[in-house]
Every structure is written in structure tokens, then in C-alpha cells.
Specification:
Strand order of the largest sheet: 1-2
Number of helices: 3
Structural class: mainly alpha
Shape: rod-shaped
Order of helices and strands: HHHEE
Number of strands: 2
Strand content: under 5%
Length: 147
């Protein structure tokens, strides 16, 4: 949680710094030379732009659209990073890798056990037919008539 909180703070800082930079470079000169007679803070705001100057009104509108797209880009990049880490944590790729490894091991074990059984049978190492005169293939050493 703390990691993603810090990433959120970093994303907010990135959005704020980029928008502040471009606002100072683009919007402040547009507002300052807007032709109105405003003073103080209003000299650098939309209040200083004359209503009949349509070109200057479009600059903040376009800036707003570009800024919104940049914010969406930043949020999407953080979301993709979150999903990637979450899938890794929950076992998305790791689980797939483990399942593939288990499947491969089970195929190898099946191949090893099948080949080892055939080797044991060829060499005579299979289960003994009888031990000390007692049959191991029957029912617990009982003869046919008993039981």
C-alpha cells in the first residue's frame, strides 16, 4: 500500500509540474497580453482576455484538452504498472510458469517410471512372485481352498 501511495504522489507531482511548466510558458503570456485592463492577479487570468478575441479563448481550451489527455495517459500508465505487479503477486505469470513446470515434471516422471518398470522387468528386479514359499500374488499367502 505504501509503495502505491508513493507512486500516486509521484504521479501527482509529475502532472502538476508538467502542467505548471506549460501553463507558465503558454497561458501566462496569452492572458497577460489579452488586452484587458485588469490588474494584480487578474492580469494573468482569463479575466484579462477580451471577449471578442476568439483566438485567445481557444488557447486555454486546447490546453485543457491536452492537459486532460496527459492526465489520462499518466493514470493509465500507473494502472498498467499496478495490474502488472498485481498479476505477478497473485501468480499470473508465476502460476503459469509453475503449472508448466509441474506438467513437464509429471511427463518426465511418467516416462521415468514407465522406463524403470520395463528395465526392472527385463533384469528380473520386479516384485517377487513368492517369499519363503508364500505366494505374493494370492490373498495374503492363503492357498486356494482356504478362506
Amino acid at each position: 500500500d505504501a509503495y502505491f501511495y508513493l507512486r500516486y504522489i509521484r504521479m501527482c507531482l509529475k502532472i502538476t509540474s508538467v502542467s505548471s511548466f506549460w501553463a507558465i510558458i503558454i497561458l501566462c503570456p496569452v492572458y497577460a497580453t489579452g488586452g484587458g485592463n485588469e490588474s494584480g492577479f487578474y492580469h494573468f487570468s482569463m479575466a484579462n482576455v477580451l471577449q471578442n478575441d476568439k483566438g485567445r479563448v481557444w488557447v486555454p481550451t486546447i490546453f485543457c484538452w491536452l492537459f486532460t489527455m496527459y492526465c489520462c495517459f499518466c493514470v493509465r500508465a500507473e494502472m498498467m504498472h499496478y495490474v502488472e505487479l498485481r498479476m505477478e503477486f497473485l501468480g499470473g505469470e508465476e502460476e503459469e510458469r509453475i503449472l508448466h513446470k509441474r506438467k513437464k515434471e509429471s511427463k518426465m516422471k511418467a516416462g521415468v517410471s514407465a522406463s524403470s518398470d520395463s528395465i526392472q522387468k527385463r533384469k528380473g528386479y520386479g516384485a517377487p512372485k513368492e517369499i519363503h514359499g508364500i505366494s505374493t500374488t494370492g490373498r495374503a499367502g492363503l492357498s486356494e481352498g482356504q478362506g
